[in-house]
Amino acid sequence: MISRRIIRIKAMQSLYAFHTSPDQTIKQAEKELFHSINRTYDLYHLLLQLLVEVHKYAGERIDSAKQKNFPTEEELNPNTKFINNGIIVSLSNNTHLFEYVDSKKVNWIENYTFIKKIYHKLIESEYYAKYMSTRENTLKEDRELVEYFYAVVLTESDELFQLLEEQSIYWNDDIEFVISMIIRTLSKFKANSPEFKSLMPLFKDQEDEDFTKELIRKSIVNSNEYREIIKKHLKNWELDRVAFIDVLIMEMAICEFLNFPSVPTKVSLNEYIDLARYYSTIKSRTFINGILDKILKSLKEEGKIKKEGRGLIEETQITKKRSK
Q1: Does 10 share its domain with 145?
Q2: How many CA atoms lie within 13 A of 69 on its CB side?
Q3: Does residue 181 contact residue 204 with C-beta atoms inside 8 Å?
Q4: Which of 163, 181, 276, 283 has the fewest CB atoms below 10 angstroms from its CB?
Q5: Which domain holds residue 230?
Q6: Helix 4-20 and helix 206-221, axial crossing angle in degrees, nearest 10
Q7: Are residues 138 and 281 in the same domain?
Q8: Phi-psi category of 309—alpha, beta or left, where left has phi over 0 and alpha has psi -120 to 50?
């Protein structure tokens, strides 16, 4: 589930903490990185559970209305299309979700008021009214409503961002990414999905987990070496004048160039230039792009770039294009 981009962002944050905390060890930095990644996985389950709680609240409202002394005809025969939403019903019965939230103690118990607010935000929307205009459930409509809930209702809720920020400092940059993963997860659900249907794993595979460990370890261990490489390619600049976060970004890029044979250099270059756009100064993206381009060219000329598998294939394709 955790993408390489999120891994790089969190590794960068852990490296920053390592270099600005003199007493921190490599082991502690690695532990902090994996803790941060696991908290993102907690958020993934917490937001999945939120939809279940909103659905549960909707059912309780219908049951409560029927118990009135003098219920209306509409209260006795309510439109249950939302209650019967096949995607949400399947998610509500998913054993993996509830085993996880029970074991990690992530829930909405103390935020019942927010559940009511987000429910009303949903049902007051024009999209919901259109969805409820017929009583027949179709898989397409059910799925699109779920996507609307996450992509629009939640992302437009300032209160959600405030609540999550109060609960964990690790969630500040994660919400949009997690929501995209949730939408991808639920796109594979059907009305009759079995209760044991798998959710997304923490890491896509063992290679991604190994990538995480090696990226932070080798970035720390070889930091001095990478800084010397950067110094060599700075013209009319002293390293001390370069923004610290820019140095870290370039160190990580060099680390990938040299230590990850299956990752194409073009991918690494683009990813770290993108990181600079979001986490550094306005001019950093162009500056880092120029320096890393020179460094990459130099490392290739020195024969230090060794690629294999996908990395080798893409490097070969790039070389052929340049030679034409």
Answers
A1: yes
A2: 0
A3: no
A4: 283
A5: 222-323
A6: 30
A7: no
A8: left
Return d(Cα 256, Cα 190) in angstroms, integer: 40
Tokens representing residue 31 in the block: 């532990």
pLDDT in tens, 256-307: 999 999 999 999 999 999 999 999 888 888 999 999 999 999 999 999 999 8
User: Is the same domain home to 124 and 248?
Assistant: no
* 228-237 core/surface letters (b: 16 or more CB in 10 A; e: else): ebbeebeeee
Count CB-CB contacts under 10 A for residue 268.
22
Written as one letter, the residue type at 102 is D
Scanning 71-222, the segments in alpha helix (DSSP H) are: 73-76, 86-92, 95-104, 112-123, 126-131, 139-148, 158-167, 175-186, 206-221
Q: How many domains does the chain have?
A: 2
In this predicted model, what pLDDT tens digit does every residue of 97-135 receive, in sequence order? 999 999 999 999 999 999 999 999 999 999 999 999 999
pTM, whole model, 2 decimals? 0.90
The CA distances from residue 32 to 13, 28, 167, 213, in Å, are 10, 6, 17, 11
Cα distance between residue 3 and residue 37, in whole Å: 10
Structure tokens at 46: 């917490």
The C-alpha atoms of residue 292 and residue 30 are separated, in whole angstroms, by: 25
